[in-house]
Amino acid sequence: MRSVSQSLTVPDPADRQDNPILIVPYMWIGDFVRVHSAIRLLKQRWPQRPIDLLTSSLCAPILDYLPGVRKGIIADLPRRRLPFSQYAALGKQFAKERYGTVLVMPRTWKAALAPFLAGIPERTGFAGEFRFGLINDMRFGERKLERMIDCFVALTQPKNAVLPGAYPLPEIVVPPAEIENWLSRNDLRKAGRPVVAMAPGAVGPGKAWPPENYAALARSLTAQGADVWVLGGPAEAAIAAQIVKAGGASAYDLTGNDLRNAIVALAAADLAVTNDSGLMHISAAIGTPTVAIFGPTSPRLWAPLNPLSAIIEPPGRYPNIRERSTTGVTVDRVLDAVRRTLPRSSAAANQRS
Q: Strand ranges (DSSP E) for 282-326?
């Protein structure tokens, strides 16, 4: 392993033109999708350099559908502990890959530890938690960047560079053959009925539209001739049961442990209704028309770069947006947005097939 003094020196860019790049992202589904804009910018800057991502087991399936990603390195590291042996082992794994550059997105000390132990020559990240030495291409001014995506993009650019005027959009590409196989395997042939995927999960208070509202929406949609697929993880199983009961025989519980199932389902659906969540970002990056419900978060800051079919927020003005809740969004408003969008999305799906 190289010495500390060697690790503090950033090599000349000419020395790393062929070395792979590693990205250490935030381990949230939405951030894995957002980071694809950064990947695309890195590919523009260094077309020949492979790009890998550190990932959790949960997020790993996303990487199979992100163009420009060579592979993911899976490490389910604990959030509130620092088991040095795990980080040392991860550092050895990084060293074997001979990375020339790592972009450390989180500002934490431990996020930069394994890349430092691996002796990756160029370790780029924002100042935070006294990481001097662990990060040797230190960036400042993160707090002046309003959006998370701006922070990601800043780390892809040379130091002190002006950010691009427009960012490439994230892309999630699911092969049509995989969609067909998934539909067949799950006995979900659409038979001409439009499909509305629902993603009722969310992290954080006030972000989840009430389950009874999703259930009422499912009841209306199935009565009007649509199928409803409920997506999410094990935590959404009880909500899914409530929605499926309301939707009847045309509603399906597709929740489960494998995120890949939700990704392919969103690619197969005609439209998605989501909270501000990771599945919202996945749906938008696939290009599935998405009706997104926002409560205590600002769409201006947290909506996907990809266009949404409709953004629905609670009525009224709030001095503090964190006081808003999705409970203020009525079923009729969401149903109206779905009705306006569904004919267009169904026609587009028929053209794709």
A: 290-293, 310-312
What is the pLDDT averaged over residues 32-51? 97
Same domain, 199 and 308: yes
pLDDT-derived band of residue 78, with 50, 70 and 90 as boundaries?
confident
Distance, CA of 107 to CA of 15 (rounded, Å): 26
pLDDT tens-digit map of 142-188: 989 999 999 999 999 999 999 999 999 999 999 999 999 999 999 99
Q: Kindly report the CATH number assigned to the domain that includes residue 129.
A: 3.40.50.2000
Closest-CA residue to 60 (of 231, 230, 257, 229): 257
Q: How many domains does the chain have?
A: 2
Q: Say yes or no: 208 and 348 in one domain.
A: yes
Q: How far lies 168's CA from each of 64, 171, 213, 300, 318, in Å?
A: 19, 9, 35, 17, 32
**Is residue 170 situated within a structural domain?**
no
How many beta carbons lie within 10 A of that of residue 195, not counting itself? 25
The full DSSP string for 50-79 is: -EEEEE-TTTHHHHTTSTT--EEEE----S
Same domain, 91 and 126: yes
Q: Are residues 183 and 110 in the same domain?
A: no
Q: Is 39 exposed, middle or buried (0-12, 13-18, 19+ CB in 10 A)?
A: buried
Would you place residue 224 in the very low, low, confident or very high pLDDT band (cuts 50, 70, 90)?
very high
The secondary structure of 204-237 as a DSSP string is STT-SPPHHHHHHHHHHHHHTT-EEEE---GGGH
Same structural domain, 85 and 181: no
pLDDT in tens, 64-76: 999 999 999 999 9
